[in-house]
UniProtKB/TrEMBL annotation:
This is Apoptosis-inducing factor 1, mitochondrial. Residues 466-508 are annotated as: Disordered. Residues 418-546 form the Mitochondrial apoptosis-inducing factor C-terminal domain. It catalyses: A + NADH + H(+) = AH2 + NAD(+). Residues 476-499 have a biased composition (Polar residues). Belongs to the FAD-dependent oxidoreductase family. It comes from the Eukaryota. The keyword Ubl conjugation applies. GO terms for molecular function: DNA binding; FAD binding; NAD(P)H oxidase H2O2-forming activity; protein dimerization activity. GO terms for biological process: apoptotic process; mitochondrial respiratory chain complex assembly; positive regulation of programmed cell death.
C-alpha cells in the first residue's frame, strides 16, 4: 500500500492494458433502468386512461353542442380539437421487428463483428442492441489517454491525443455512419443500426427471437452475444452500507469516467483497491493529476509488487521501487487485516471483471465453470446460429487450450472472426491476441499469450535507446491503439541479430531498459512480454504458434533484435 503523488513524473510502473476496464455495477444500473422503463410504461398507460376518460366525459355532456350543428358531429369534433391540447398522445418508438444479423452488446467486439459482416456481405442489415446510451466506442482511453489531456472540455468531447500527437475520438464512427433502427428494414443497401438504452433480457433460441426490457420482441437469423462483463466489487464494501457504496466507483463506462473525473476535482483523497491493469492505470492517471493539486492518491493491493500477477517478481519489485522512491506511504476508514486503517474520501474498486452471462439461463447456453463466460468452440459458436465474442466468450484456443481473455485486441479479433463465421467462413480462432501497457510516453510493454507470474519465466534484457519508447512506436505506426496496426502482421522467417549472446538477467539494482520475458509451461513458451520492444509482435506470435521447446531462450531473444542500436 503506497501513495501515488508523483507517479506520472516518476514513470510509475502502473501498467496500461488494452481492455481490462471496469464499469459501475451493471446489475444496479440495469435494475434502475428496468424500473425507469416500468415507470415510463405505467405513466403512458395512465395518460391513455385519462385521455379516454376525458373523451367519454365530453361525449356524454348534455346540451353542450352548438344548436346549429348536428349532434352526430359533436363527438367527432370535440376530441379532435380539445383532447390533444390537454394530453398529447406519446409518439411510439419504432423498432425493426426482424434483424438478419442481431448483435447483443455495443462494445468493441460487436462493432468489429458488424464491420466484418458488412465486408463479406455488403447488403447486410445489422442491428446492435446496447444498454448504454452511447454509440460503440473503445474503452481503453477511459483509463488512459483521456486522463492525460490538458483540454478541460475532454469530458464532453471525449477526444484525446495519442503519444504521437494525433487526435482521435473514442467513438469508432460518427453518428452519420449508422442508419436509424426504424429505417434498417427499408434501406436499399442495408447498413448498421444501433438501438441504444435497451437491454436484452430473454433469448428464445428455438424461436430465434429476443425480448427487450420493455417487452419488445425482435427476431433474428443469426445472433452474436458480446455482452462484455460487469466489474466485481468487494463484499466488505457491499456490506458496509449506503454511505460507503455511494463513495465507491466501479469503473468501466463513459459515465464512470465522467463521474470519477468530477470526484478527483472535488475531493481530497482517493484510494484505489487493486494492483492489476485497471487499478494501475487509474493510479498513474490520478497520480499525475495530484501533482498539480492537493489530491492524495493511494493504491492498495495484496501482491508484493505492482502488476504482481503478471510480471515476474524481480520486475514487479523493481517497478514498484521506482514508484516508492517518489512517494510517501501514509497509512491513513479502511481497516486492513493487519489492523491498519486508511482514511479516504472515495474508493475505486478495481478487482476484476465478471463476464456478463445473464442470458445463459433463458437461452440454455453453457457457462464455463472454470473461466466463466459462455462456452464456445474454436469457431466461437455456442449454437448453430449463435456466436459469442469478446470478454464474455470462453473459447477453445487450438494452441493454448480453453481460455477467456479480457483485452481490446481480443475483442477486435474475436469480433471480427465471429462476423466472418456468421457469414459462412467457418474459421477457427488461431490468432493470438495481444495487449499493451504504457507507463507514460517513455516506458511500456506489449504482451501475448498466457502471461502469469506463477509460471516459470526467462528474461533477457539490454540497454534501451531513444527509439525504444511507446512514443516512438506510435509515431512509426501512426496509431496509439497499437493492436490496430499489428494484428495483420505476419512473421514467416524472422532473422536473428548477429550480436553476441546477451549476459544473464541483471539483478534488481539494474535498470531494465528493454528486453523479452518468456513464460513457460512444460518447457514450451506460452507467453511473451516485450519490455520497451515494439513492432515485433508477429515474431512473438509465431514463436507461440510453433509451440516448440527451445534449448536456449537467449538465442530466441535474438529474433527480437534487442541488442541492436
Amino acid at each position: 500500500m503506497w501513495t501515488c503523488k508523483n507517479l506520472w513524473k516518476k514513470l510509475a510502473p502502473l501498467a496500461r492494458s488494452s481492455s481490462t476496464l471496469c464499469r459501475q455495477n451493471a446489475r444496479g444500473v440495469s435494475n434502475v433502468f428496468l424500473h425507469c422503463l416500468d415507470m415510463e410504461k405505467s405513466l403512458k398507460r395512465g395518460d391513455k386512461e385519462r385521455y379516454q376518460e376525458r373523451i367519454n366525459e365530453i361525449a356524454s355532456r348534455p346540451n353542450k353542442v352548438v344548436p346549429e350543428q348536428p349532434i352526430t358531429e359533436a363527438p367527432a369534433a370535440e376530441p379532435a380539437t380539445v383532447a390533444p391540447a390537454e394530453v398529447p398522445a406519446p409518439t411510439p418508438v419504432e423498432f425493426p421487428s426482424h434483424a438478419p444479423y442481431l448483435l447483443i452488446g455495443g462494445g468493441t467486439a460487436s462493432f468489429a463483428a458488424a464491420r466484418s459482416i458488412r465486408a463479406r456481405d455488403p447488403g447486410a442489415r445489422v442491428l446492435i442492441i446496447t444498454d448504454e446510451p452511447d454509440l460503440p466506442y473503445m474503452r481503453p482511453p477511459l483509463s488512459k489517454e483521456l486522463w492525460f489531456s490538458d483540454d478541460p472540455s475532454v469530458v464532453d468531447t471525449l477526444r484525446f491525443k495519442q503519444w504521437n500527437g494525433k487526435e482521435r475520438s473514442i467513438y469508432f464512427q460518427p453518428p452519420s455512419f449508422y442508419v436509424s433502427p426504424q429505417d434498417l428494414e427499408k434501406v436499399e443497401n442495408g447498413g448498421v443500426a444501433v438501438l441504444t438504452g435497451k437491454k436484452v433480457v430473454h433469448m428464445d433460441v428455438r424461436g430465434n427471437k429476443v425480448t427487450l426490457s420493455d417487452d419488445t420482441e425482435i427476431s433474428y437469423d443469426k445472433c452474436l452475444i458480446a455482452t462484455g462483463g460487469i466489474p466485481r466489487n468487494l463484499q466488505v464494501i457491499e456490506r458496509a452500507g449506503e454511505e460507503v457504496t455511494k463513495r465507491t466507483t466501479l469503473f468501466r463506462k463513459v459515465e464512470d469516467f465522467k463521474a470519477l473525473d468530477k470526484v478527483s476535482r472535488d475531493t481530497k483523497s482517493i484510494t484505489i483497491i487493486g494492483g492489476g491493469f485497471l487499478g494501475s492505470e487509474l493510479a498513474c492517471a490520478l497520480g499525475r493529476r495530484s501533482a498539480d493539486s492537493d489530491l492524495e492518491v493511494i493504491q492498495m493491493f495484496p501482491e508484493k509488487g505492482n502488476m504482481g500477477k503478471v510480471l515476474p517478481e524481480y520486475l514487479s519489485n523493481w517497478t514498484t521501487a521506482k514508484v516508492k522512491s517518489g512517494s510517501h506511504c501514509q497509512p491513513r476508514l479502511i481497516k486492513l487485516k493487519d489492523g491498519r486503517v486508511v482514511k479516504t474520501d472515495h474508493i475505486v474498486a478495481a478487482v476484476g471483471l465478471e463476464p456478463s452471462v445473464e442470458l445463459a439461463k433463458s437461452a440454455g447456453l453453457e457457462v464455463d465453470s472454470d473461466f466463466g463466460g459462455f462456452r464456445v468452440n474454436a469457431e466461437l459458436q455456442a449454437r448453430s446460429n449463435i456466436w459469442v465474442a469478446g470478454d464474455a466468450a470462453c473459447f477453445y484456443d487450438i494452441r493454448l487450450g480453453r481460455r477467456r481473455v479480457e483485452h481490446h485486441d481480443h475483442a477486435v479479433v474475436s469480433g471480427r472472426l465471429a462476423g466472418e463465421n456468421m457469414t459462412g467462413a467457418n474459421k477457427p480462432y488461431w490468432h493470438q491476441s495481444m495487449f499493451w501497457s504504457d507507463l507514460g510516453p517513455d516506458v511500456g510493454y506489449e504482451a501475448i499469450g498466457i502471461v502469469d507470474s506463477s509460471l516459470p519465466t526467462v528474461g533477457v534484457f539490454a540497454k534501451a535507446t531513444a527509439k525504444d519508447t511507446p512514443k516512438a512506436a506510435t509515431e512509426k505506426s501512426g496509431t496509439g491503439i497499437r493492436s490496430e496496426s499489428e494484428t495483420e502482421g505476419t512473421a514467416n522467417s524472422p532473422v536473428a541479430s548477429s550480436t553476441p549472446e546477451p549476459p544473464p538477467v541483471p539483478e534488481q539494482k539494474d535498470n531494465y531498459g528493454k528486453g523479452v520475458i518468456f513464460y513457460l509451461r512444460d518447457k514450451v513458451v506460452v507467453g511473451i512480454i516485450l519490455w520497451n520492444v515494439f513492432n515485433r509482435m508477429p515474431v512473438a506470435r509465431k514463436i507461440i504458434k510453433d509451440g516448440e521447446e527451445h534449448a536456449d531462450l537467449n538465442e530466441v531473444a535474438k529474433l527480437f533484435n534487442i541488442h541492436d542500436d
